[in-house]
Structure to design on (693 residues):
């Protein structure tokens, strides 16, 4: 098969599968934020990728600071928190100034946030330059471990995966086990009733949106461990993450996880056997094809409107 | 009962608007600009086809396609393939390993023209392909989506993904499509050199006439019963469905017409600019073309043309002098149009024209007609969201 022996195929599968897992983690973090914003509120945030870039640049800047003051080994956890807080704050602001006026016009929100993403990209370019920058990684994130001589698993990938798992678990707790999550779900189900029983639905919207953006910020921090950051980094992931959310079924958290896994693995493995662009085409085409058969996504029963 | 001319021209105000636009495009611009600038305007006007199609599809139908660039691109590529085959005759390509095939195929070790290039050896077949290929493509997408009642933002996301797929495919399949550079070095069309100044003038006028043809076609559609249903579907889809109409068929038809109009624009682009590349197919151009329509006024066919001209003029001026500022402006434009001027230039005109005594009566008449016809006019966007 393709001129490889079976053992080699096995090793390739494991390594590509693992590369797919780190991609899956970033994609999952991106898609989680989107699933909250889009799945719960029905808002299309085309600037979501730029919130990820905010997180990435935050991490890069903090790493420079860390190098200057010699605390490279500890800054990363701190950077994740700062990335979250910053993206959360900016998301909060964006909701307040822009999004809340457009809830009744979803298609217009799409255009307005696209405009926002252009503005943010130019801000990144003006302040950080057009060149890609990368973060100085702490030592414990570098290197790899080898379970067998032919298999090579990078540690940063393991870390990103762990981070994605923690954040996913956190989102799950927030949405399904906390008072806040209860309010969010109540607002989604019936806005008027939720308001009638005393939930401040406007505030819920704002926090939900900001939370989605904050998670994108964490995705950005995670992203710096596997690639370098440029002003248009966010645009690389935006279509993929929308596909993840739509494919998984917009309202389903489990669907988002499953489809992020499927899409990332398919791309990663196909990209090894075909060219990278054809792997992507094949994956996206399959998703679009399946969505045409089953427009409500994999894990949702709601009819799309 | 409206007469045909009423339907095509859209009443007194419509005639005035069309006459002004015709005066600008056919007389003022050709007289006032040198051929280089006029060719640039011609290029902008090819985008106006797409903006026009979006007025039909999005403004009146409530269907936002973020993939109109792919139809523009398909039309453009069909034309480019024909011109490229003509430019690659065995004599001018004799230094290649395989003479007589397009240069990029030779660079990619192809030794024969692929089967799907064969029809593009003939001009009639090419013109047929320009009109048919994007339409069939739109039919397949529309059929799969609308029959299953996928609409609104889902449709937007999926068309966007398809546009992305197509552009990656074109870039990836370098040997068949010319890759990221696109199809370049186009020279003649049936022996007629399209690069000379006189050819550029002729192509500019052909383009302008086709554009007006498409405006007439769109206006005919919009003023007919079909157009009324389109508006009704946009505002209360369920009610139209329960009245016994097959909503999906109407949507598919509109999507196909919009695709065809965009494709004509694409073909004219290739002819006037002399190349076609994947940078006109993907997500970014597709969304930019939406903003042309939005700036002009998503409900106004003529507004779409003005919007396209204005935004592109701005883009040319700013990206030449202050490239840094342009993205801010473009982004700001998206936000401002959506937030403050959802009806675009046409909306501003409607609002202020009544203050000019000369126009007052016409505007009032027009308003009256519109309120008679469909009380829903002007709620361009608000009702959409309520539906979803």
């Amino acid at each position: 098969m393709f001129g490889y022996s079976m053992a080699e195929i096995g090793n390739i599968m494991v390594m590509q599968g693992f590369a797919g897992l780190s991609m899956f983690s970033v994609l999952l973090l991106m898609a989680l934020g989107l699933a909250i914003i889009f799945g719960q509120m029905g808002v299309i945030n085309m600037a979501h990728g730029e919130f990820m870039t905010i997180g990435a640049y935050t991490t890069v800047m903090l790493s420079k600071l860390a190098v200057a003051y010699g605390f490279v080994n500890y800054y990363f956890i701190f950077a994740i928190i700062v990335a979250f807080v910053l993206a959360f704050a900016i998301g909060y602001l964006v909701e307040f100034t822009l999004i809340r006026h457009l809830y009744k016009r979803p298609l217009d929100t799409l255009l307005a946030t696209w405009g926002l993403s252009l503005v943010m990209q130019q801000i990144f370019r003006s302040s950080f330059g057009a060149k890609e920058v990368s973060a100085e990684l702490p030592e414990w994130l570098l290197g790899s471990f080898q379970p067998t001589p032919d298999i090579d698993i990078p540690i940063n990938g393991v870390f990103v995966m762990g981070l994605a798992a923690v954040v996913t678990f956190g989102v799950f707790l927030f949405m399904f086990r906390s008072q806040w999550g209860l309010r969010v779900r109540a607002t989604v189900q019936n806005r008027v009733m939720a308001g009638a029983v005393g939930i401040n639905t406007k505030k819920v919207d704002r926090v939900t949106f900001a939370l989605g953006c904050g998670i994108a910020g964490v995705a950005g921090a995670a992203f710096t461990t596997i690639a370098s950051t440029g002003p248009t980094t966010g645009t690389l992931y935006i279509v993929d993450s929308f596909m993840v959310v739509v494919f998984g079924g917009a309202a389903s958290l489990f669907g988002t996880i499953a489809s992020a896994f499927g899409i990332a693995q398919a791309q990663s493995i196909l990209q090894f056997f075909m060219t990278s662009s054809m792997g992507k085409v094949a994956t996206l085409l399959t998703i679009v094809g399946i969505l045409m058969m089953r427009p409500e996504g994999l894990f949702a029963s709601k009819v799309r409107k | 009962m409206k007469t045909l001319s009423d339907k095509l021209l859209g009443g007194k105000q419509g005639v005035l608007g069309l006459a002004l636009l015709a005066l600008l495009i056919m007389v003022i611009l050709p007289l006032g600009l040198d051929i280089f600038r006029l060719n640039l305007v011609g290029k902008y006007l090819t985008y106006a086809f797409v903006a026009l199609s979006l007025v039909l599809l999005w403004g009146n139908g409530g269907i936002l396609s973020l993939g109109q660039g792919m139809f523009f691109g398909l039309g453009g590529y069909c034309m480019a393939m024909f011109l490229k085959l003509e430019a690659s005759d065995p004599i001018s390509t004799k230094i290649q390993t395989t003479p007589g095939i397009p240069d990029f195929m030779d660079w990619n070790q192809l030794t024969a023209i692929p089967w799907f290039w064969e029809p593009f050896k003939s001009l009639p077949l090419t013109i047929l392909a320009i009109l048919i290929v994007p339409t069939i493509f739109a039919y397949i997408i529309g059929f799969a989506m609308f029959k299953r009642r996928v609409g609104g933002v889902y449709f937007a996301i999926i068309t966007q993904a398809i546009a992305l797929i197509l552009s990656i495919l074109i870039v990836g399949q370098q040997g068949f499509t010319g890759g990221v550079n696109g199809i370049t070095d186009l020279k003649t069309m049936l022996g007629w050199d399209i690069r000379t100044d006189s050819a550029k003038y002729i192509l500019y006028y052909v383009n302008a006439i086709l554009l007006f043809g498409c405006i007439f076609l769109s206006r005919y559609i919009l003023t007919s019963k079909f157009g009324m249903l389109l508006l009704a579907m946009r505002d209360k889809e369920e009610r139209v469905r329960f009245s016994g109409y097959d909503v999906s068929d109407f949507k598919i038809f509109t999507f196909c017409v919009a695709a065809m109009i965009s494709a004509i624009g694409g073909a004219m682009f290739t002819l006037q600019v002399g190349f076609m590349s994947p940078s006109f197919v993907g997500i970014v151009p597709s969304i930019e073309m939406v903003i042309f329509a939005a700036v002009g006024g998503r409900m106004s066919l003529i507004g779409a043309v003005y919007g396209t001209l204005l935004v592109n003029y701005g883009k040319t001026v700013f990206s030449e002098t202050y490239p840094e500022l342009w993205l801010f402006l473009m982004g700001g434009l998206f936000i401002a149009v959506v937030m403050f001027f959802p009806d675009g230039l046409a909306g501003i005109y409607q609002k202020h024209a009544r203050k000019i005594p000369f126009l007052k009566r016409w505007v009032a008449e027009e308003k009256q007609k519109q309120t008679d016809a469909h009380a829903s006019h002007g709620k361009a966007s608000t009702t959409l969201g309520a539906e979803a």
Remarks:
- Chain B has a mean pLDDT of 85.
- The CA atoms of residues 245 and 309 of chain B lie 37 Å apart.
